[in-house]
Amino acid sequence: MSHNTYGHLFRVTTWGESHGPALGCVVDGCPPGLPLTEAFIQGFLDKRRPGTSRFVTQRQEPDAVKILSGVFEDDRTGGPVTTGTPISLMIENTDQRSKDYGEIRDRYRPGHADYSYDAKYGVRDYRGGGRSSARETAARVAAGAVARRVLGDGIMIRGAVVQIGPHAIDREAWDWAIVEDNPFWCPDAGMVATWEAFLDETRKAGSSAGAIVEVQASGVPAGWGAPVYGKLDGELAGAMMSINAVKGVEIGAGFAAAAFSGEQNADEMRAGNGAPRFLSNNNGGVAGGISTGQDVIVRIAIKPTSSILNEVKSVTRDGEEVDVRTKGRHDPCVGIRAVPVAEAMMACVLADAKLRHRGQTGR
């Protein structure tokens, strides 16, 4: 299998399967001298790990990360720092229940990668989808923690769920302070009860729901990204689309901009303190593929979880028509746990952009 690596100068290669002994990543291109501990990385993994509420999969994985290489105890700083060599991170799988997938060994789950993997490779790991499982995203979150060290404390990356099923938040009620105080990463206190009732009903019905996640990065300086084939928004779109179950990406106003007039869409400017002051951010902090200094804003649309208890029509590997239902412990809305994953991919894209900008301009 090819294409397991993302990035140009800050490069992340993930490895492992959903029901294998472990999964992880190798981060190459990280500058030396940055503080990095397992505890720092673990803080981000804990936000993504399963089993944290009744609204996500009940698979019990501690997602404990181990740093295998790339750091060294520095007497001058009193703690481990990156050495500039490849950083290898490993997360063991401890709660696999492969028997849950015995019934679909030779059956394709509609909407999942079962058929497409089989068509391409002639073999597939039916235990949770193997490499196509969202379990792979744990390694991305670990890599994203390293990327945040590259970016430094001046850049803040944070995400929230803004819609589950047909129920969207009131953006006027947005409050970042409550995002981590509810099981949905919801920034609208008034929407939490609605999502609870909706997902309880969805889960009991044996079905699943989709979601929209928004990620914002503040403190990104103007000038990152490159015109034409290295556009920052293009890199972001590609990185976000690589996340499991993502079927759409918006930058800034996104598809809504198609209904705007030129005057409405223009991010007008006035003189500021050393840099222009923008009166809006319809372009999501990127113009001409280069960051403007505004907040970088990305939204991703996540489809409903493909593995559901209700029967759906499918076929076997031999072409026999069958009905398929998937046993096991699956997220009724996989978009909930996508927030730290989308944050991680934003961090990886921006870390790569920072290093590429420094390499070209010296700044």
Notes on the protein architecture:
The structure is a single chain. With 363 residues, this protein is an alpha+beta fold. It contains 7 helices and 18 strands. It has a 5-stranded antiparallel beta sheet with strand order 1-2-3-7-4, covered by helices on one side. A 5-stranded antiparallel beta sheet has the order 9-8-10-16-11. Strand 17 and strand 18 form a beta hairpin. Helix 1 crosses helix 3, helix 1 crosses helix 7 and helix 3 packs across helix 7. It is globular, with a radius of gyration of 21 Å. The mean pLDDT is 92.
SS class: alpha+beta
Task: Please tally the β strands and state the result.
Answer: 18
Helix content: 10-25%
**Approximately what portion of the residues adopt beta-strand conformation?**
15-25%
Question: What does the radius of gyration come to?
Answer: 21 Å
Strands side by side in the biggest sheet: 1-2-3-7-4
Main sheet properties = 5 strands, antiparallel
Distance between the termini: 37 Å
Round the mean pLDDT to the nearest integer and report it: 92
Number of helices, where a helix is a run of at least 4 consecutive DSSP H or I residues:
7
Contiguous low-pLDDT stretches (5 residues minimum) are none
